[in-house]
From TrEMBL:
Family: Belongs to the IPP transferase family.
Catalytically driven reaction(s): dimethylallyl diphosphate + ATP = N(6)-(dimethylallyl)adenosine 5'-triphosphate + diphosphate; dimethylallyl diphosphate + ADP = N(6)-(dimethylallyl)adenosine 5'-diphosphate + diphosphate
Gene Ontology CC annotations of this record: mitochondrion
Membrane-traversing stretches: none
The keyword Aminoacyl-tRNA synthetase belongs to this UniProt entry's keyword annotation: no
Cross-referenced SUPFAM superfamilies: P-loop containing nucleoside triphosphate hydrolases
The enzyme's E.C. designation: 2.5.1.112
Protein name per its UniProtKB record: adenylate dimethylallyltransferase (ADP/ATP-dependent)
The species this protein was found in: Mikania micrantha (bitter vine)
Record InterPro entries: Dimethylallyltransferase, P-loop_NTPase
One of the Pfam families matching this protein, by short name: IPPT
Functional note: Involved in cytokinin biosynthesis. Catalyzes the transfer of an isopentenyl group from dimethylallyl diphosphate (DMAPP) to ATP and ADP.
Length: 430
C-alpha cells in the first residue's frame, strides 16, 4: 500500500453508509513531536487540527509555550491555538464545548479532525464525556508519540536553552506583574512562575548585585527544565492510565531513535519510525483495514535489501538465496482471524520446473514476490492502495490459484512447488 507522495486521500469513501465520523487524537509528553506528527498527517489527508494543549490555547508567550509557527503549520488550518484571553480561565469544560463545535464544522467540510496536544485531561474529558456524545458520533484513532524519558530529558533541557537564546526571558519580563496570580490563565505556563524571584529582584528598590542576579537567573532556568521534565512524566503516567484502566486502544510510536540523531538522519528516522507508520495507521483506520505493522516493517526491510542487491549487480540466484536466508521462519501472530490467502502466478517459464517459496506475512494485502527469471525479467508487484494491479502479470498464460484458511496464525514462510511458475505474489484478502 502506498500513499501518494504530496497528495491527499479522498475521505468520502469513509463517509458512505450509516457510519460514525472519524477523528484522530495525537498524544504524548511535552517535546516529543505531537504538533509535527499532526501536521504530517494533515498534509497526507484532508484534515484540520484542534489544539488540545491547555496553555497553548492562550494568546501570547509564544516562546514560553512553544507554539508552532506559521511556517511550521505548512498551510494546515489550526483551531484553538493562541486565541483565548491570557488573563481568563479556560478549563476542560470550555475545551469540550469549543472543540465539539470545531469538530462538527471540520467534518461538515468533509475533512478529518485531528486533536493534538499534551493536556490529557482535556482529551479525556472530550472523548469520555458524561453523555457519551463523542463516542456515539466518532470513531477515534489514538496515536502516542513516545520517547525514552532520559533521552527526552536531555532534549527538554536543550530546548529550554534554545528558548532562552530566542528571547524567553524578555518575553516573560514584558508581562511580569508582581501581584499576578500564577494559578490562573497563561501564567500557569512552565517558565513563568519560575522567574518570579528573578524579576522581583530586578524590581526591588534595594540593590541586588550582579552575582546574585545571575544566580537567580540560572536557578529560574534550571527550575524550568526540572518542572518541564516532571510534566513529561505526569503526561506519560496519564497515558498509561488511559491504556491500563480505561482500555483506550492507543498506537505507540517510538521516536527515541529520532532524538538520538541529528539533521538529515533525524528527519529520515522520523519518516521511517513515526510519520510513515502513523500515516499507514490512519489510512487503515479511515478505510477500515487491518495491518500487522511488525510484519510489514520486516517485509519492507527485506524488499529494500533485495533491491540493493540487484543494484549491486548480484545475480538472480544470489538474490534468491539471500532473501531465503533473511525471511523469518517463525510463526507470526495476527490479532484477528484472517479469512483466506490467495496466490496468483505471474509468469510461465516452460524450460524448467522451479520449486518456489511463497513469502507470506500477516500484512493485509500484497506482501512480497519471488525472484525474477534467469533471463533478467523482473516481475515486481506494482501496488496501488494495497492492491496488485492485474495488468502487471501475464495471468492469461498461467494461473495457479492457491487458497488456504488461516485461524489465529500465519507462517512467514510457506514452501510450495508449482509447475512452470516463476513469480508468485501473495495477497491477504478480507
Amino acid at each position: 500500500m502506498q500513499i501518494p507522495a504530496g497528495g491527499r486521500m479522498d475521505l468520502q469513501v469513509s463517509r458512505l453508509g450509516p457510519r460514525k465520523e472519524k477523528a484522530v487524537v495525537v498524544m504524548g509528553a511535552t517535546g516529543t513531536g505531537k504538533s509535527r506528527l499532526s501536521i504530517d498527517i494533515a498534509t497526507r489527508f484532508p484534515a484540520e487540527i484542534i489544539n488540545s494543549d491547555k496553555i497553548q490555547v492562550y494568546e501570547g508567550l509564544d516562546i514560553v509555550t512553544n507554539k508552532i509557527t506559521e511556517e511550521e503549520c505548512r498551510g494546515v488550518r489550526h483551531h484553538l491555538l493562541g486565541i483565548v484571553d491570557p488573563e481568563s480561565e479556560f478549563n476542560a469544560g470550555n475545551f469540550v464545548s469549543t472543540a465539539s463545535v470545531y469538530m462538527q464544522s471540520i467534518v461538515g467540510r468533509r475533512k478529518l479532525p485531528i486533536i493534538a496536544g499534551g493536556s490529557n485531561s482535556f482529551i479525556e474529558a472530550l472523548v469520555d464525556d458524561d453523555n457519551n456524545q463523542f463516542r456515539s458520533r466518532y470513531d477515534v484513532c489514538f496515536l502516542w508519540v513516545d520517547v525514552a524519558m532520559l533521552v527526552l530529558d536531555q532534549f527538554v533541557s536543550d530546548r529550554v536553552d534554545r528558548m532562552v537564546a530566542a528571547g524567553m526571558v524578555e518575553e516573560v519580563r514584558n508581562m511580569y506583574n508582581p501581584n499576578a496570580d500564577y494559578s490562573k490563565g497563561i501564567r500557569r505556563a512552565i517558565g513563568v512562575p519560575e522567574f518570579d524571584s528573578y524579576f522581583r529582584a530586578e524590581h526591588s528598590s534595594s540593590y541586588t548585585d550582579q552575582k546574585t542576579r545571575t544566580m537567580l537567573l540560572e536557578t529560574a532556568i534550571n527550575e524550568t527544565k526540572i518542572n518541564t521534565c516532571k510534566l513529561g512524566r505526569r503526561q506519560i503516567e496519564k497515558i498509561h492510565r488511559l491504556i491500563d484502566v480505561k482500555g483506550w486502544p492507543i498506537h505507540r510510536l517510538d521516536a527515541t531513535e529520532v532524538f538520538q540523531k541529528k539533521g538529515t538522519e533525524a528527519d529520515e528516522a522520523w519518516d521511517e519510525l513515526v510519520a510513515g507508520p502513523a500515516s499507514l495507521i490512519v489510512y487503515d483506520f479511515l478505510f477500515d483495514r487491518y495491518r500487522d505493522f511488525a510484519a510489514a516493517k520486516a517485509v519492507a526491510a527485506i524488499a529494500q535489501e533485495k533491491t540493493a542487491c540487484y543494484n549491486k549487480g548480484y545475480g538472480t540466484l544470489q538474490v534468491k538465496q539471500w532473501v531465503e536466508s533473511k525471511v523469518p521462519l517463525q510463526m507470526l501472530k495476527t490479532t484477528e482471524r484472517r479469512k483466506a490467502v490467495s496466490a496468483q502466478a505471474a509468469h510461465k517459464h516452460t524450460r524448467r520446473q522451479p520449486e518456489l517459496t511463497i513469502y507470506s506475512t500477516a500484512v493485509l494485502q500484497v506482501t512480497f514476490y519471488a525472484c525474477d527469471d534467469d533471463y533478467g525479467h523482473d516481475y515486481d508487484d506494482h501496488v496501488y492502495d494495497g492492491h496488485v494491479c492485474a495488468h502487471d502479470f501475464d495471468s492469461a498464460r498461467c494461473h495457479v490459484p492457491v487458497q488456504r484458511h488461516l485461524q489465529d496464525h500465519v507462517y512467514a514462510c510457506d514452501s510450495l512447488s508449482v509447475h512452470d511458475v516463476e513469480t508468485v505474489v501473495v495477497m491477504m484478502v478480507e
